[in-house]
Amino acid sequence: MTGSALLRTRGVSRRYGRGSALVRAVDEIDLAVPAGQTLAIMGPSGCGKSTLLHLLGGLQRPTDGEIWLAGHRIDEMSERALARLRRHHIGFVFQSFHLMDELTAVENVELAALLAGQPPRRARQRALHLLDRVGLADRAKHLPSALSGGQRQRVALARALSNEPLVVLADEPTGNLDSAATLEVLRLFEELRTAGQTLVVVTHDARIAAVADRVISMRDGSFADDSQLTGSGSGSGSGSGSGTVYGGWR
Ligand SMILES: Nc1ncnc2c1ncn2[C@@H]1O[C@H](COP(=O)(O)OP(=O)(O)OP(=O)(O)O)[C@@H](O)[C@H]1O
């Protein structure tokens, strides 16, 4: 029914409004993301990239179609089950970081690990380990307000990994960053790709697309080009993935 893909959609649509005001933000999309694949979704403003990412992460519900993650149909789940799925199995990274201002870097990461059910001692150890992995061991006790944009996004990435997610979903992760900070995040994405982390990233940045296994271009709610099918795009095109093992990220 769901095939072997980790993440799959079948005829998924999200429409807003009706009549002459109808917007087909996402229009009958079929997508299969194998475990371990790094997928970049690109396209002009308003073509439906963020909406698709939100559907994949159970942050929004489709108006039609099916969404499957690891063999579970998520579009039919209760709100409670969806919240649990997000806490335990999905890592989110947003353009505006969404860190808690009153918590330190390590507390932000630790909180997500605690919410995913890790015991306090392990959650703290994991948070410190992940901050070290993103090069911020010496900033663990800093509040977000004392960090640069690039450092905040690296904390957000550590937080996204705190629950050992099946998939990381990133929405314009470098949209608010300068060039140097973008390169730092890019390096981390490359490490994640090498470690076999499944990653779907919405981006306008061709440098991120260039390190992805697969690049999909969207237009008006549909896929206009898929490098996995056409061999086009800037990704390396392996697309086969290497499982959900994190290697050095564990
Ligand atoms: N809550 C909403 N109500 C009505 N229309 C919406 C809503 N959210 C999004 N849309 C419309 O859906 C379409 C897709 O929006 P979406 O944010 O997914 O695009 P995007 O490709 O991510 O754009 P950008 O690159 O500018 O972030 C747009 O036409 C947008 O105006």
TrEMBL record:
GO MF term (any one): ATP binding
Q: Where is the ABC transporter domain?
A: 7-245
Family of this protein: Belongs to the ABC transporter superfamily.
Segments carrying the region annotation (Disordered) are 227-250
Q: Matching InterPro entries, A to Z?
A: AAA+_ATPase, ABC_transporter-like_ATP-bd, ABC_transporter-like_CS, ABC_transpr_LolD-like, MacB-like_ATP-bd, P-loop_NTPase
What superkingdom heads the lineage?
Bacteria
Species of provenance: Plantactinospora solaniradicis
Q: Which UniProt keywords apply?
A: ATP-binding, Nucleotide-binding, Transport
One Pfam family from the record: ABC_tran
SMART domains (UniProt xref): AAA
Q: Per the record, where are the segments of Gly residues compositional bias? A: 232-250
Q: What is this protein called?
A: ABC transporter ATP-binding protein
